[in-house]
Specification:
It contains ten helices and 13 strands. By secondary structure, the chain is of the alpha/beta class. It folds into two domains: 206 residues, Rossmann fold (3-Layer(aba) Sandwich); 74 residues, Alpha-Beta Complex (UDP-galactose 4-epimerase, domain 1), CATH 3.90.25. β5, α5 and β6 form a beta-alpha-beta unit. The relative contact order is 0.13.
């Protein structure tokens, strides 16, 4: 198998570090670009080359991207609430930063970019499962940033012949997920509460559902998007499991006492259609929610 120079922005973060590990395992020359605002030292693969850098510094990206064949763009501030409170700062990183990455790719003649998008671009949809051709309805700055990023990916593919693929992640969970931030994913939060002997806090009735996909499966989807021969023209592809799980079900799997607090405004249900991922990438998830949470309980010695 051919070995390539590959860049992973946000490669010290939760999802990015798992992509780095998968690429290192395949023997590629992997470079991480991360400003370490959310990345963690312990997530950095020792066989990768680390560049501590902010993607807002477009000039500084150019020499690092020289000679790269593939780029995975995971770097962002992925917090909905933070984007609502800091719309200008998050736009600068999530939108302008993405444009800087694309420019560095174009100027260095990179072959393909795989972009981390989000199911948040859909907003509230009346029909489930959610398919890629549904009209996006971003309801937060963060969601809009991701949608704009997809637009740029498509445009760069059409105008500059830079191959691009956009993966719309649903609710990713797994090892290395942070419990920091105002809206940590419920699985990481519940495990942290249980580990500290506290009650599991459920917002509202706990009947809200999400499509939870394991980070190992997400990393595998990224590698397939890099290699896939049926993609490269800015396609948007859902990466979920096709199954819904309620917050109450998560609490049941984690185990422990629960406490309900007042509801807040958020989508009631999310469920991905993954037909397109199967068709274009040959990908489907391999880890069930029960297995994934079981692994995290073991890892956390709970």
């Amino acid at each position: 198998m051919n070995k390539y120079k590959i860049i992973v922005t946000g490669g010290a973060g939760f999802i990015g570090s798992h992509i780095v590990d998968a690429l290192v395992e395949e023997g590629h020359e992997v470079h991480i670009v991360d400003d370490m605002s959310a990345g963690k030292e312990e997530n950095i693969n020792p066989k990768a080359t680390m560049h501590k850098l902010d993607i807002r510094d477009g000039e500084a990206l150019l020499p690092i991207f020289a000679g790269a064949t593939y780029v995975f763009h995971e770097a962002a501030i992925p917090q909905v609430q933070y984007s609502i409170e800091h719309p200008v700062e998050t736009n600068d990183i999530n939108v302008n930063g993405t444009l800087n990455v694309l420019e560095a790719c174009r100027l260095n003649k990179v072959k393909r970019v795989v972009f981390a998008s989000s199911c948040s671009v859909y907003g509230d949809q009346e029909r489930l499962p959610i398919v890629e051709d549904m009209v996006p309805h971003p309801i937060s700055p963060y969601a809009l940033h991701k949608y704009i990023g997809e637009g740029h990916m498509k445009l760069y593919s059409e105008i500059y012949e830079l191959e691009t693929v956009c993966l719309r992640y649903f609710n990713v969970y797994g090892p290395r997920q942070s419990v920091d931030g105002s809206y940590p994913l419920v699985i990481a939060r519940f495990l942290d509460l249980k580990k500290n002997g506290q009650k599991l806090i459920i917002v509202g009735t706990g009947e809200n559902t999400r499509d939870y996909v394991n980070v190992a499966d997400v990393a595998r989807a990224n590698i397939l998007a890099m290699k896939g021969e049926k993609v490269g023209k800015g396609e948007v592809i859902n990466i979920g499991t096709g199954y819904q799980a309620s917050v109450n079900r998560i609490a049941e799997l984690v185990g422990g006492e629960v406490e309900h607090i007042a509801p807040r405004l958020e989508p009631k249900s999310l469920q991905a259609s993954i037909s397109k991922a199967k068709e274009l990438l040959g990908w489907e998830p391999s880890i069930s929610l029960e297995e994934g949470i079981g692994e995290l309980i073991k890892l956390n010695n709970i």
